[in-house]
Amino acid sequence: MAALCVGVLVGGCTSGSDTNKTASTQTPAPTETGPWPPTSGRGKCAVDKETDVPGTMRDGTVLRADVYRPKTSDPVPVILMRTQYGKSAAQVQPSRYQTPDWFASQCYLVVIQDIRGIGRSEGTFTEFDNDLKDGYDSVEWAAQLPGTNGKVGMYGSSYVGATQWLAAVETPPHLTTIVPANTASDYYDGWTYEGGAFRLGFVEPWAVGTIGLESAEQRKDTAAADQIKAAMPDFTTWMNFRPYKDFPPLQPGNPAVASWYFDWIRNSTYNDYWKRWSIREHYQDVKIPVLDMQGWYDAFLAGGVENFTGMVDKGGTPQARQNQRLVIGPWDHLGWGRPTSTIAPLLDKLGPVGNSPINELMLAWYDHFLKGVDNGVAGDKPRVDYYVMGANRWKTAPSWPLPQTQWKTYYFNGSGVNGAMGRAGKLVEQVPTGAADTDRYRYDPEDPAPSAGGHSCCGVGTGPQGPFEQGAVEQRSDVLTYDTAPFTTDTELTGPITVQLWASSTAVDTDFVARLEVLGQDGSVINLNNGIIRAAFRDSLTNPTHLVPGQPYKFTIKIWPTSYLFKAGDRVRLAVSSSDYPQYAPNPNTGEPFGDNTRTQPATQTIYKDAEHPSSVILPIIPSGDTGATTFDLTPHK
Prior knowledge:
The chain is an alpha+beta fold. It has helices at residues 7-10, 100-105, 133-143, 159-168, 200-218, 222-231, 235-238, 255-266, 272-275, 301-314, 318-322, 345-348, 358-371; strands spanning 47-56, 62-70, 76-83, 109-114, 148-157, 175-181, 193-194, 197-198, 290-295, 324-329, 383-388, 393-397, 406-413, 426-428, 438-443, 454-455, 465-466, 480-483, 491-505, 511-519, 525-534, 553-566, 571-577, 603-608, 616-622, 630-632.
């Protein structure tokens, strides 16, 4: 592929004057084997560093930050990161952001702050709870630091994206823009739970090995830290522990260790505990431009997309609604800068075209909104840049879902059961007209179907994320599959996927999982994305209700978005099961309160495919040769 200038990302091959160039004209993307962070592309400002600079919150608690100050007499904007992962790390490794010193060399005052109760900051750590008020206070404190022009931008990934959104909904006057990456719209739905199911493979390892340990070390609680460290090497075993409310590695008898985790278990529905932090409830309070970075296999993709559409629709000012930009690349949760990162092998094979443009793009975004540089990074209308897997190229569009999307419904037909004669399940465009037609399988919570990739968290070696071959999993009798006919021409699918599943169970509660896949001409089966619904939550995340055993219900399963070019001869496969472990905690089928039970029971699941119960999947087809999206290359020239 020919290497083009990164200006196609920001609107042109140059930006600003010859004496005030942005990173888009200075910084080449690192090669796939090059160092991270790259040393090239530094700005004109020399930099001094101040360590442990105190900022006092409204309740008197002191939070400390490292401040990287450019040597210039001109007032400069502030770039603020509020992190629970250590201010000295600054989310540079694995390959994500350039160093704070590098950003400061572009003549920004960079502030990397430990949040409350973490690292060098005072106070008691509680997940999410302090980041509204502390976020507001920290923005306003940073805006008053000597040498600033009063404008503050924020950045960071994952929880460090959450600290941005939680600050933004408080509307601090000096917050001018945020650049959240790989983060969600709600900390119940799409973070801790999904479709009512507990996101086990992400939440427990993250709670123990990252935030639980960091908090214990900050408190100088050696006993708790040692116990957490002892549990970490055997986490596969610990994820089998029941009941969740008594999870030993986080010491339920000692509220100083992780009371927040046990709050998450007790609050297993979408209630007031979660609503106070929900971003989706507060788009009207956010009045600033947002550049949002996401990945097709990221743990928070669905929420990131919702943040974009929610802000376009409900943002608090016309400027905010018009200046929303979403970038979705071929990335899982960590290491999306990619050089020197350990990522899913099939993502690694994409090469440099799959590298993230975050540093160059973020700097151009800041230059525009914090310094007033007219560089084309924002055009007063929303924009989506997305990577089409299979085609291995970038495209851009004005909205999400893409405005030219043709929604096509495929209906379940034939048996999806893995029998001795092979699979015969089909996805067809014809609406079912016949009488009762069903498939059945037995789901045993003691023997759940294993995860092979997915959109969990946080690294490919520690959680089910990324694309992987699904053939072995689909040999199981409790995984049904349904295939389209081979495509006759290359066909792009880009957007969200909805499964309308008619099913019944012999249990009063159970789960249904759906996974969209590529069935290649060579017989390979690769997952694109997946979704789940806990049956009791089929109508409401707030008020779950049990099933009547044996009664058919329509379950809506939201498969998270994807983008893939199916080549002629490829097929779409839809896999249906009742488990995906450890991505999700297996449903015990007993209907007992979540977190309390240790008992399980098998269930017989029935999938319906007839005229009265037409199970289906709705796919987002992008017309071939469409002109609604522009192809461009993110690879900067060297």
